[in-house]
Design goal:
The protein is mainly alpha-helical. The chain has helices at residues 2-25, 42-63, 67-75, 82-106, 112-121, 133-142, 153-160, 166-200, 208-249, 258-272. The protein starts with a helix and ends in a 28-residue tail after the last helix.
Length: 300
């Protein structure tokens, strides 16, 4: 319920509320009369509160299945359409130049190199850059969190997520909610800017309102980038702490030495993507049905 309220209802409520106010003011049929926005009388007040609220909840529920798509569009996955693919190519080149400039700063022996190294760590390799800052912030985690140990992050993530501790799981959910909420707010303010521009295009005194909505959309997008960087950092923590829990859950033998770790996890990654790996033995020594397993007191 908290996620639906923060991620769905609030962004949709802002859009519906703005549209409702313009309709009440008559902005789409003539000059806006803002005095008509506020209801007069108890009955009108109830309708003015319940109708937009119901519409916002309905819109939030309808858009919920498209949450992943809403994020991916802002990430820069635009290669399906020729027009957006050309724009993506231009933006990727801009990102590549920024990456190379940061790499040059990082190689200099001065105080600015530490900040440049930190910013480089939040970006994926130059050959897999995406057009947007949000996309690169998320891709940095998707292509490095597990790969440091030989695990393919994207294929291992759904399995290793099931092994995380309650505290880490709560941090992941909270950060993901913040990311999705910021993305939805960005879309909401962009849509609101379009609605305001359509309703107030002939009112010179109100043309600043769409600009305010665009500024708020930019602020929300920046918040999404910050949340994405935090989420990528937590992805690294998950693999740092729970990669061996993943092996145990899959009933594979734990590596005895650090040198074997990379090889074992590379084999597991191949198995997870559906490849046949004959030299990856199972180990079923630990009982999984004993209720004392939760606190580690079961006999093996």
């Amino acid at each position: 319920m908290r996620r639906l309220l923060m991620v769905g209802f609030v962004p949709c409520g802002l859009l519906v509320g703005g549209f409702w106010s313009l309709v009440r003011a008559g902005s789409f049929t003539g000059h806006s009369d803002w005095a008509r926005v506020l209801p007069v009388g108890p009955g009108a007040t109830v309708v003015a509160l319940l109708a937009p609220t119901a519409c916002a909840w309905l819109l939030a529920l309808l858009l919920q299945p498209f949450q992943v798509r809403a994020v991916r569009v802002l990430e820069g996955y635009w290669d399906r359409w020729p027009a957006t693919a050309r724009v993506a190519g231009v933006l990727v080149e801009i990102q590549r130049r920024r990456y190379l400039a940061l790499r040059d700063k990082a190689s200099r022996p001065d105080a600015a190199s530490a900040d440049a190294l930190r910013r480089l760590a939040a970006r994926p390799p130059v050959e897999v850059l995406l057009p947007t800052e949000l996309g690169n912030a998320l891709r940095a985690g998707e292509l490095s969190a597990g790969e440091r140990y030989g695990l393919a992050t994207l294929s291992a993530w759904p399995r290793i997520y099931m092994q995380v501790s309650d505290r880490l799981s709560q941090s992941l959910r909270s950060t993901r909610d913040a990311l999705d909420a910021a993305v939805n707010l960005c879309w909401s303010f962009l849509a609101l800017a379009a609605v305001l521009a359509a309703g107030l295009y002939d009112e010179s005194g109100a043309r600043w309102l769409p600009l305010v909505a665009l500024v708020l959309a930019a602020v929300a997008y920046k918040g999404a980038v910050i949340a994405a960087q935090a989420y990528s950092g937590l992805m690294h923590v998950v693999f740092d702490l729970h990669r061996f829990d993943l092996l145990e859950a899959l009933h594979h033998r734990l590596p005895a030495e650090q040198e074997q770790e990379q090889e074992v996890f590379e084999r597991v990654s191949k198995r997870l993507v559906g490849l046949r790996v004959p030299d990856l033995p199972y180990e079923h020594g630990r009982g999984v049905s004993d209720p004392r397993d939760a606190d580690g007191r079961a006999e093996t």
